[in-house]
Design brief:
The protein is of the alpha/beta class. It folds into two domains: 28-442, Amino acid/polyamine transporter I; 475-641, no CATH class. The protein is built from 25 helices and eight strands. It has helices at residues 8-14, 29-39, 42-45, 51-60, 67-92, 104-114, 119-149, 151-155, 163-176, 183-208, 220-241, 248-253, 255-258, 260-288, 306-337, 360-377, 380-386, 389-409, 414-436, 444-474, 478-487, 509-518, 568-577, 606-617, 622-625, and strands spanning 347-348, 357-358, 491-500, 520-533, 544-548, 553-561, 587-597, 633-641. Strand 1 and strand 2 (357-358) form a beta hairpin. Helix 2 packs across helix 10 and helix 6 packs antiparallel against helix 7 (119-149). It starts with 7 loop residues before the first helix and ends with a strand.
């Protein structure tokens, strides 16, 4: 059966004007819209907790804050939302879907198909973008939960010494329950965040009347004038203004879960109006009462509502953190499927939703990183200095990949594609430059995490390629082996043997060991390789290819999308339904287990050799990764020098 060609991914994206109605986005429009409110907008929805406050810090150091400064900064916040989120992501980038899926890796796959000549640089951009997300995934839970719990200090100073312990307890609990899955909890995400956004809007409206001149913030000239008149201070403020749009990439990354229309409806009907009203309200409060600069968000609420608001904010930040954590799991699985990371153990937490997964090692690494950040920075204001570099850089990566898609796939003229993406890049590079100033104040944290992930992915892909080349040199082609077996016939036994291999053209190591040590061969032999396609999901009818290479040898290639789990038995069941005759109870799976050791002639530096060997030890058992019944598996090991 012919498999789906690589260019098929481009076909769906070329029809970018259509709404995504397939994939995971099942359900009524209202239900999907409510779900998107709970999952997609958690990060950007909790930005009002700290965005305006941190933007004002630089101007307050110079003394009293002038009305023009408050209006100018609020103007910058609003136009950041209008241009970066609304225009780039909601109206433009969400049209560049890869079989209905979004996100940096999905966009990378789309761009590689559209422009194969630049596949290498595009692949590198995708790796960098995915790595930068990991830095964001560690900071978001820390700054979000910490900023919410800090509201307790506004209620009463009694809680001041307990902010850090309470924050850490919440975070530990959050990560501890990840193994249970998010299905049950997710049903509460939408309603809670709906209440949160309504509260944001009500709080804003209650204060706009204090100083109606805050509406001047809608004039972008006020923001530009502020930047022009304040020189370096304005440049530093720009780095904090970006906090208002962190989480913008989630709109695109989660498109496959909810579909384009629900996410867009939620943004225009609820999210954007609530955020705009809240920033206007905080600005009006500061115009009428400059002393509220201590925490304009919580001081926007009346005294009686502050404790409930702290509790609601804590729930909202936990939800924002949850969305980031599950996003990290999904991204890790995509990276594994694309061969960027070793096979890590992936647990499915839902029998009905493919996307609900739990990766224990990723969960532990995230928890350790988040707790270290809380202990190192101790306040959301300090953490704000660490926030921004990784996120702005990931936005730049998205724009560069989008340029390729617009130019080569959508077939815009070069000048049009350059003009469009350059307009986005001008804003994003300004944000990126402003955030670079914060590198030594904490911005090094996400950069270090992202760089570490890039090195890990580079090492794993490089080591895997060298190992495959070495294995191919030392192996016998399958067809040559068949001719040898025809001359020197081994003992044949009944049943079916399945040998999994990464290279179907050469004889699997497990097959050679079985012949060497057991001196037997089953009457039917299947050599199966699993191939990950640069599309999110492969249709069931395109799941496999069969090639009969002799009377008793059959080569099978199974095709999975990079957002699917490669469940081999399920694919075999599909093949059986379509006429392939074999009995799973008389079938044995033969897997090769390699123990790697460093070599002086590997082609990589010694440190990279050691890192690659260490990464290989973290790799999950192939039996579990491919969901093969353990009582049907025979493992044959070998020691290999890298």
């Amino acid at each position: 059966m012919a498999h789906e060609s690589l260019n098929d991914a481009a076909v769906s994206a070329a029809d970018h004007g259509k709404d995504h109605q397939d994939g995971n986005a099942h359900g009524s429009l209202a239900a999907l819209t409510l779900g998107s409110i709970g999952v997609v907008y958690g990060d950007i929805g909790t930005s009002p907790l700290y965005a305006l406050r941190e933007s004002l810090v630089h101007t307050s150091h110079a003394g009293a804050i002038a009305d023009t400064e408050i209006i100018g900064i609020v103007s910058l916040l609003l136009w950041a939302l209008f241009l970066t989120v609304t225009v780039k992501y909601v109206l433009f980038l969400m049209r560049a879907d890869n079989k209905g899926e979004g996100g940096t890796l999905a966009l990378m796959a789309l761009a590689r198909n559209a422009y194969p000549k630049a596949a290498g640089p595009i692949f590198l951009l995708g790796i960098i973008g995915a790595s930068l997300f990991s830095g964001d995934a560690i900071i978001t839970p820390a700054i979000s939960v910490l900023s919410a719990v800090e509201g307790l200090k506004i209620v009463t100073p009694f809680f001041d010494p307990y902010v850090i312990p309470i924050t850490m307890a919440i975070l530990i609990t959050l990560f501890a329950v990840q193994s249970r899955g998010t299905g049950d909890v997710a049903t509460f995400f939408g309603p809670v965040m709906l209440v949160w956004f309504v509260s944001l809007g009500v709080m804003g409206v209650s204060h706009i009347g204090d100083a109606p001149r805050i509406f001047y913030a809608f004039n972008p000239l006020n923001g530009l004038t502020f930047l022009a008149n304040h020189g370096m201070i304005g440049f530093l403020v720009l780095g904090s203004v970006f906090l208002a749009v962190t989480g913008a990439e989630a709109l695109y990354a989660d498109m496959g879960h909810f579909g384009r229309r629900p996410i867009q409806i939620a943004w225009f009907v609820l999210i954007l109006p609530s955020l705009v009203l809240n920033y206007l309200g905080q600005g009006a409060l500061l115009l009428s009462d400059p002393s509220a600069i201590e925490n304009p968000f919580f001081l926007s609420a009346p005294d009686w509502a502050r404790l409930p608001l702290v509790l609601l904010a804590t729930l909202a930040t936990v939800i924002a953190s949850q969305a980031t954590i599950t996003g990290a799991f999904s991204l890790a699985r995509q990276a594994i499927q694309l061969g960027l990371l070793p096979r890590l153990e992936i647990q499915h937490t839902s029998s009905t939703q493919e996307g609900q997964i739990f990766i224990p090692r990723v969960n532990r690494i995230l928890l350790i990183g988040v707790l270290l950040l809380v202990l190192m920075f101790k306040s959301s204001s300090a953490l704000a200095s660490a926030y921004g570099i990784a996120v702005t850089a990931s936005l730049v990566v998205d724009s560069c990949l989008a340029f390729v898609v617009v130019w080569k796939l959508w077939r815009w003229p070069l000048w049009g594609a350059l003009t469009l993406t350059a307009s986005f890049l001008c804003i994003e590079l300004a944000f990126f430059s402003a955030n670079l100033v914060k590198f030594f104040e904490g911005g090094y944290a996400p950069v270090f995490v992202g760089a570490s992930v890039v090195i890990i992915m580079w090492t794993w892909t490089r080591g895997t390629r060298l190992l495959e080349e070495k294995t191919r040199r030392d192996s016998i082609p399958v067809r040559d082996l068949i001719r040898m077996l025809e001359k020197s016939k081994p003992t044949r036994v009944t049943g079916t043997a399945i040998f999994l291999t990464s290279d179907p053209e050469v004889a699997p190591t497990a097959l050679m060991h079985n012949l060497k040590h057991n001196k037997v061969l089953h009457e039917r032999v299947f050599v199966i390789s699993v191939k990950t396609e640069p599309v999110p999901r492969v249709a069931p009818q395109n799941r496999y290819e069969l090639e009969r290479i002799s009377d008793d040898f059959t080569k099978v290639t199974l095709h999975f999308g990079f957002m699917e789990s490669p469940r081999v038995p399920v694919a075999l069941a599909t093949m059986r339904k379509e006429g392939l005759k074999f009995d799973i109870m008389t079938t044995s799976f033969f897997l090769g287990r390699r123990t790697l050791k460093t070599s002086a002639h590997s082609g990589m530096p010694l440190w990279q050799d050691r890192l690659f060997v260490s990464l290989s030890k973290q790799s999950a058992n192939a039996t579990d990764f491919f969901s093969i019944p353990s009582d049907r598996v025979v493992e044959l090991g070998a020691q290999v020098a890298v």
